[in-house]
Amino acid sequence: MTEVLTQPAPPVALLRATNPPKRRQTSPLATIVLLAGALYCLLPVVWVLVASTKSGGELFSTFTFAPGTSLADNVGDLTAYRGGLFWRWMLNTVLYAGGGAALSVIVSAMAGFALAKYSFPGKSAIFNMLLAGVLVPGVILAIPQYLLLAQVGLTNTYWSVLLPSIISPYGIYLARIYAAAAVPDEVIEAARTDGAGAARTFVDVVLPMMRPGLVTIFLFQFVAIWNNFLLPYIMLGNDHLFPLTVGLNGLLNQGAAQPALYTLVITGSLLSILPLTALFLSLQRYWQTDLGAGAVKA
Amino acid sequence: MGIMGRRGIAAMVVAAALLATGCSGQDDSGQQQQAAGPASLTFWTWAPNMDKVVALWNQQNPDIKVTVNKQDGGDPAVTKLLTATKAGSGAPDVMQAEYQKIPTLVAADALADISKNLDPSVAKAFPEAVWNSVSLGSDAVYAVPQDTGPMVFYYREDVFKSLGLQAPKTWADYAAAARKVHQSDPKKYLGTFSAADAGWFSGLAQQAGASWWGVNGQSWSVDIDSDATRKVADFWGGLVEEGVIGNKPMYTPAWNAGLNNGTQVGWVSAVWGPGVLEANAAKTVGKWKMAPLPQWDAAKEATGNWGGSATAVTSQSKHQAQAAKFSAWLNTDPEAVKALAQISGVYPAATAGQTEALTSPPKFFANQPDFYQTVAKAATTVAPFTYGPNVNVAYNTYNDAFGKAADAKKKSAFLTALTTMQASTVKDLTDSGFTVAK
Amino acid sequence: MTATHRRRGPRKLAPYVFLTPAILLFAGFMAAPIGYAVYLSFRATKVTGLGLGKGARREVWAGLANYRRSLADPEFVHSVGRVGLYGLLLVPVMMGLALLFALVLDSGRARGGAFSRTSIFLPYAVPAVIASLLWGFLYLPDVSPFAYLAGQLGLPSPELMSSRYILFAVANIALWGGVGFNMIVLYTSLRAIPSELSEAARLDGATERQIALRVKVPIIAPSLIMTFVFSLIATLQVFAEPTTLRPLTNNISTTWTPLMKVYRDAFTRDDVYSAAATSVVIALATLVLSFGFLRLVGRRAFGQEA
Question: Which segment of the chain is annotated as a signal peptide (chain B) (predicted)?
Answer without folding.
Answer: 1-25
